[in-house]
Amino acid sequence: MTALQYQAAAESISLTAGDLSPLSVHSPVAAVPGAAASGWTVITDQAINVDEITPGCLPELYPEIAAWDRAYSYDLQPNDAEEGHGTLRVYVIDTAAHAAAEQAAVVTASYGTCYAAQVPDDLSGTGAVATGPVTMVVESVDAGVSSYTRLYTLPYTFAGEAKTNYDSVVWLQSGRYRAILDLWTCCGQPPASDFQADTQLLGARMQAAPA
Fold first, then answer.
1. How many other C-beta atoms lie within 10 A of the C-beta of residue 148?
2. Are residues 73 and 122 in contact, defined by beta-carbon separation less than 8 angstroms?
3. How do 64-74 and 84-93 pair as beta strands?
4. Distance CA 38, CA 31 (A)
5. Which of 129, 160, 193, 204 has the fewest CB atoms within 10 Å, measured from its CB?
6. Residue 119 neighbours by CB under 8 Å, 6+ apart
């Protein structure tokens, strides 16, 4: 397999807007031109230059062959208002053992704390102002592959109105593939069950991808 073939595999694993589940804490979204029935719209869809990837919260970054980035907006309106946002990154690591080692690092408390420090970045450039610290709880979904789920919450104000950012993150790994599905919403705490079908589909695609 060449790097370009693994890049194509990473793209094929990535969820489409139609694959994602609606957020149960919201009323059914209005039909928006270009949006899937789920209410999600893909707003970024591109390969990642693996030479520019940094370790981030990982203590050690193993060689990556390819990666794909997809971002989503929930209930995207003509004025760019949205009820939720999301990102999915799929990575192809040089060996399955190294991918498993990175997944094991995700479970550590230090990684969880490090990731929490990035959550306020979700509000950057929006005019929102954080009004308290990020809190974190571990949740559970059955993805059919190795996975770990955390819910981060962050209180903030926007246009004088108090809100809370709920950021649900699932890390998955199968073979040499890793994925990070990060979905957040401003207007209600979504149950972990909202992401069950999404993570199971991701897990099945990762298992079916070329070794």
1. 21
2. no
3. antiparallel
4. 10
5. 160
6. 134, 152, 154, 165, 167
pLDDT band at residue 31 using 50, 70 and 90 as cut-offs: low
CA-to-CA distance for 207 and 163, rounded, in angstroms? Answer: 38
Report how far apart, in Å, the C-alpha atoms of 180 and of each of 2, 14, 70, 102, 136 are.
23, 10, 11, 12, 17
Q: Using CA atoms, how far apart are residues 171 and 149, in angstroms rounded to an integer?
A: 6
**Structural domains counted in the chain:** 1
CA angle 105, 113, 92 (to 5 degrees): 35
- Domain extent, residue 181, equals 3-208
Number of C-beta neighbours around residue 8 at 10 A: 17
As a whole number of angstroms, the distance between CA 3 and CA 32 comes to 37
Cα distances from 119 to residues 68, 195, 200, in angstroms, run 21, 19, 25
Residue 190 CA, chain-centre distance (Å), reads 14
Which residue matches tokens 């998955």? 172
pLDDT at residue 75 in the model: 72
d(CA 93, CA 194): 28
> Is there a contact between 203 and 36 (Cβ–Cβ < 8 Å)?
no
User: What pLDDT, on a 0 to 100 scale, did the predictor assign at position 143?
Assistant: 96
CATH number of the domain that residue 198 is part of: 3.40.1000
Pick from 59, 73, 65: nearest CA to 113: 59
